[in-house]
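Lecture notes, part 5. Sequence design as translation. It can be helpful to think of inverse folding as translation between two languages: the language of shapes and the language of residues. The source text, in structure tokens, appears below.
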């Protein structure tokens, strides 16, 4: 059974869909690789600075990150 995504990951994915933005486009905007950004968005990697960059770019709350 697949691991459940955290609320922060879900918020980030939903915001990407709303903006019709790819992970590659987000990665370029925050200055990280697509692979690394995908790992953060999909909950495989956790990095507080990266979560902050993504949260700021997508204008989402970082508070759900504690549940990662």
């Amino acid at each position: 059974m697949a691991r459940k995504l955290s609320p922060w990951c879900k918020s980030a994915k939903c915001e990407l869909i709303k903006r019709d933005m790819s992970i590659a486009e987000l990665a370029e905007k925050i200055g990280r690789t697509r692979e690394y950004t995908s790992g953060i968005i999909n909950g495989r990697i956790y990095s507080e600075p990266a979560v902050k960059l993504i949260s700021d770019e997508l204008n989402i709350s970082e508070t759900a990150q504690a549940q990662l």
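The translated text above is only one of many valid answers, since several sequences can fold into similar shapes. The chain is about 55% helix and 0% strand.
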